[in-house]
Design goal:
The chain is of the alpha+beta class and 439 residues long. The protein contains 13 helices and 26 strands.
Length: 439
Amino acid sequence: MKTLGIDIGTTSISGTIIDVLSGEQLDIKTILNSTKISGQPWSSEQDADQIYRICQAMVEEFTQRWEDIIGIGITGQMHGIVYLDGNGNLLSPLYTWEDGRGNLEYIDRMSYAEYLSEKTGYPMSTGFGLTTHFYNQINGDVPQGGCKITTIMDYVAMRLCGHHRPVMHVSNAASLGCFDLLASHFDSDALARAGIDSGILPDISEKEIVIGQTETGIPVVVAIGDNQAGIFGVVDDDSDVVVNIGTSSQVSMTCSEPKKIADLECRPYVDGKYLLLGAGLCGGSSFGLLNDLFCQVCGMASVEMSKEQMFSLMMEAAEQVYKDGDCDNLQVRTLFRGKRNAPGIRGNIWNINMSNLTPGNLTLGFYKGVCEELYEAYQKMPAAQIGGKLFLCGNALRKNSLLRKVCGDIFSREVFLPKWKEEAAAGGAKLAISVLKNQ
């Protein structure tokens, strides 16, 4: 018997097969998420219908290859939303977590996110689903007939089951904003103060449940956030800490009850637990930013260079600087998208001298900058609870041995790679096993 996990990431979509009895990872498939839609410079939209078709094809491929799949778990990029009509039909693209419309100026020199935060009393950032909806509502951009908003993974799960109403796990619900952690529901009174009708929100599930079945009768488990799925697929103990660097970055650990700690988020997890999290908005995407710069320089010299080739050259150059010792190295603050609670902050590069402005020093500085941002958050986590392993997850860390060394140096801890690849997809498959066993 086996379960299938699917992770709908920002830049890739992955699926994996886990054996229920042995826990062995039997199969993996990862494809590029090339569904981005061109729009305003501040917008970030993807073709939600194309994403569903990719996931549907992935399910069909895995179920043809493995005959005894008994459950499907789904996860994906948090915060973003799609609009549905009353029959569950898709009316919009996916407005992703990277969308910047919430940072545009609204009134009294406040952005839409700042105004919404003031009105609701909840910290709202651009990219949060309800911030995006608030902007769309004010500017007449809610599609005609739009009755519900939901996340991309909840939409995919709904479609796979042939349902017409989405069901949203608390881990996804909280990512949209204006969510009361203690009560485990959206704060309708706070939303009303901002003029948002809470009727547009989907049904919420506090527990991990089966929401339906595919056409072929395979149970589908309620989707959870990719942060939560990545943790669930990795940790052995509640004292373990997980660093994940993908498109964005996070450092996370579980806790038994909600905690309020400055600059850390507290999110619903599974089994009634919570996650403490420090998030970076510009994790692996900062490496892509530098990659683009180097490729542009090559282009100026009429040299063709693929992104893959450039990433390899960047790592080699940084490795040499690391081996030679970098006590006089330049430093980088990789806050190119700001922070959720301070979107106006920007990154910077300093300590430049006449000899260290080189590709190797820049690349190593970017590696350190991403890890140092996460380490600042890690230092604020309850020290008494941090006694387990430090796991490194995400494709950026798995594919880059130097980045793993840098992370271990900065955290001053031994680091471990998870036994499963594509940790979030594996977490979805593992959650399906857990839910089905407890039925």
